[in-house]
Amino acid sequence: ISSFLIMPYEPGYAKGEILVCFRTGCNRLFASGFGAALGCTLSDEDYEHGNNVFIYKTEEGEEKRARRRFRAQDTFVDWVELRDTKMESRWESLECAISKLQSVRGNVELPDDEYCRKLKEIADYLQGLSD
Questions:
Q1: How high is the pLDDT of residue 115?
Q2: 60 Cβ partners below 8 Å, 6+ apart?
Q3: Mean pLDDT, the chain, integer
Q4: Burial tier of 18 (Cβ tally within 10 Å: 0-12, 13-18, 19+)
Q5: Are strands 13-22 and 53-57 parallel, antiparallel or unpaired?
Q6: Long-range Cβ contacts of 26-34 (<8 Å, 24+ apart)
Q7: Residue 74 has pLDDT above 90, yes or no
Q8: What's the Cα-to-Cα distance from 69 to each of 3, 34, 78, rounded to whole Å?
Q9: Could you tell me the maximum CA-CA distance found in the chain, to the nearest angstrom?
Q10: For residue 2, what pLDDT is reported?
């Protein structure tokens, strides 16, 4: 029996940033004013991994307090979390891998050498994700 340690996931939280998901759709103008009223600034960066989710900037070390202020507004706010950029990066890498696979899937009639080269590129890309 081989033994190995399973390393738990360690998030890569962004300092001074939180994610806020609103219960209903809202535009950036509303989100900006809402956050400003609670002492946070809406980031210029869009959050690409969910609907009605916005990135807010707060002072480093004040993330917990900012989360409490948003959570208190539960009529409007569904959830509030620290921003995990490590997880976002993993999602983006996997989406890229899926896109690469789908491009090969759509071209299965390629000559054998080109088909194999594309599969090797994908395998190398996937290997790089775990390094």
A1: 92
A2: 15, 16
A3: 93
A4: buried
A5: antiparallel
A6: 26/52, 28/54, 34/73, 34/76
A7: yes
A8: 45, 11, 13
A9: 61
A10: 55
